[in-house]
Amino acid sequence: TFWVAFPLVLLWFTMITAAALLSYGTADRYLKVLDPTPDIVSWQRKFAATEAFLGASWALILPLLIGVTDPIARTFVLMVMLLAAAMNTMMSAALPVAVYAGMVPISLAMAAFMFSTGQQGTMPLIILAAIALFLIWTLATWFLEARIHTFLRPDAVADRLIYILIANLLI
After folding, report:
1. DSSP structural state of residue 154
2. Which residues neighbour 58 within 8 Å (Cβ) at sequence distance 6 or greater?
3. Distance CA 124, CA 141 (A)
4. What's residue 31's pLDDT?
5. Rounded to two decimals, what is the model's pTM?
6. Packing angle between helix 71-91 and helix 40-59, nearest 10 degrees?
7. Going by fewer Cβ within 10 Å, which terminus of the chain is more open, N or C?
């Protein structure tokens, strides 16, 4: 590989694959539950834990590339993290706690990576990352919280948009 030794990349890829398989297995087990009233709280915790593990697995790109100063590598990490965050948001949209559980490690890793070097010229990339995270969190909030209430009360669209903007600015 260009920036990291192949065994480390293979280890990272294995971790992501294992986390994705665990997530799939959890969903598969849930679909095979024969009980008409499954324990919702327990299943929410299981889904949140698997998404947190998947998010943490994606975030492990940080220790691999934190010392690399190549701007292409830094851009690559930013794009991988944004794609992982977007995939998490879309795949777990039905369960807000799972989205946030998966987004937190990714967001923390992105922030740590962007502020890890004080090189000149990284400020535009840091600003881009902050805007992208804001937009992803806003979309997550819209899909998870606002969308349901808006469909129930179509007149509440403006209220929900204001809520989304204020909540995500505070995050």
Report:
1. G
2. 16, 80, 81, 84, 105, 106, 109
3. 26
4. 84
5. 0.70
6. 170
7. N
